Amino acid sequence: MTQTPATAAHESPPIRPAELAAYLAARMCHDFISPASAIVSGLDLLEDPTAQDMREDAMGLIAASARKLADLLAFTRVAFGASASAETFDARELEKLAQGVFAHMRAELDWQVTTPAVNKPAARTLLNLAQMAGAALPTGGAARVRAVEEGGAMAITVEAAGPRARLRPEVLSGLRGEGPGEGLHGHWVQARYVHLFVTDAGGRVLVEVGDEKVTLGATIPA
User: What is the pTM of this model?
Assistant: First the structure.
């Protein structure tokens, strides 16, 4: 098992804000382009006079893709964006956002956050770590999200357990505060962003990788 705290010993030189923004924008575009393209494909089928027998399939494709796009947009607004001027978030609303994303994943979400409200860094951490845990379960499994407030700090733990559970090397590098190396920037930038806003808030990130299990955690001042 590998346990990695996000300590200064692992950190690389600070990434330029413009570079991080570009990677985040590319990541979001990548997430949105698939359902948006599927909607366009469905509309093309509806307009094709030779494909009228596929009208029902086209409507189903449009509806499913529109739901996925709406779920991703709502999730991204809080997980990556400023989400208006809100500084605290209802944990039940965060669960709805996370469940919306997991509706389009193979993994299942087990949300066990009993704290009624969390601050902005904790809200972003919960959502991002939950999505990363789901991505670590490509063939299915369960991502269990827990958070407790103790001694003026919020302790967050997200366990991804299932067959072939794995954490990409670039995600591990991002959580350590390192560069992406040879990995894909789209996977790395989310982890690097988590490391950035958690450490900016005075917290730290922890990672454990075991047999068919990945545990992501963070402690953040409440």
Answer: 0.91
AA identity, residue 177: G
* Close Cβ partners of 121 (under 8 Å, ≥ 6 residues apart): 197, 198, 200, 201, 203, 220
Query: What is the span of the domain harbouring residue 14?
Result: 2-221
Residue 119 is predicted with a pLDDT of: 94
> Alpha-carbon torsion 127, 136, 28, 15, what sign?
positive
pLDDT: which is higher, 12 or 54: 54
**What residues pair up with 144 in beta bridges, in sequence order?**
110, 159
Q: What are phi and psi of 39, to 5 degrees?
A: -65, -45
Split into its structural domains, the chain has a count of: 1
Which domain CATH number covers 139?
3.30.565.10
For 108-122, b/e burial (b = at least 16 CB within 10 A) is ebebebeeeebbbbb
